[in-house]
Amino acid sequence: MKKLQIFSLGLVMFSIIHNEVLLASELPDGKTLVEQVNALNEGEHVIRNLHMKMIDRRGKERERDTISFRKFFGEDKKTILFYKSPSNVKDTAFLTFDYKDESVDDDQWLYLPALRKVRRISASDRGDYFLGTDFTYEDIKKEGKVAIEDYTYKTIGREILNDIDTYKVEATTVDDETSKELGHSKLLMWIDSEIKIVRKSIFFDLNGNKLKTVKTGDIRKVDDIWTRHKLNVQNHKTGHQTIFTFSEVDYISSVDDRLLNKQSLMRGQ
Asked: What's the CA angle centered on 178, arms 127 and 73, to 5 degrees?
């Protein structure tokens, strides 16, 4: 009787292990999924308005209105963002050059009109928060994409998220230096299995504690391009929240090359 129970238990354990191995083998590779996210069509150029709302833990709100212009030059991308209101931040501007070559550090500059000075953002500052929001400079630059070289990847499951089929991918930073630059050590991503957009991300700090959650909403096609219209970030450390709402997204109108340079930062739109 005891031998039969042990044999039956062994069969059950074998079945569980076999099914887990089978499930893992059916999941797509994590790095491949992230590469598919990065390959999503962004259009050759885009003009769009961005409304920012920042809410502190007491419920006090601050709002900002901006306009941004982005254009691809081959596989390199240049983006410039101008603040339009309120008056205390008007004419603040941010410029970023995102290079395809992973061995080349991306370039970023910030213009603060009160100082009448252009400040270069170094790679070591990319994990800093962007002008009072809960997005980092890296978040703003990547626009929902991921720097492949910064992480190792593992697909850990498949989940239904708000009625949408997603793959859950764990991305762990490659080393301590990268963690310090980014301001986090790991993130979990829920990637839409059909359109390959990250629907949700949870970031973890250098000690492995939950840092912030980013949710993507109102995803719909504009000029036949899947486009994110709302981003919501909840900072678990500060209780602060940031909501980005994109509008008047235009992939058709051209973007003048002369707008995408350091001189434009001080000159304005």
From this structure: 70
Q: What is the pLDDT of residues 55-97, one digit of tens each?
A: 999 999 999 999 999 999 998 999 999 999 999 999 999 999 9
Dihedral, CA of residue 77, residue 269, residue 53 and residue 119, to nearest 10: 70
Name the region of 135 (left: φ>0; alpha: ψ -120 to 50; beta: rest). beta
- Which residues, 6+ apart, have CB-to-CB distance to 103 below 8 Å? none
User: In this structure, what token pair is assigned to residue 140?
Assistant: 């703003």
Model confidence pLDDT, tens digit, residues 28-51: 999 999 999 999 999 999 999 999
Q: How far apart are the first and last CA of the chain?
A: 83
| pTM across the whole model | 0.87
Q: What is the DSSP string of 7-73?
A: HHHHHHHHHHHHHHHHHHHHSPPHHHHHHHHHTS---SEEEEEEEEEEE-TT--EEEEEEEEEEEEE
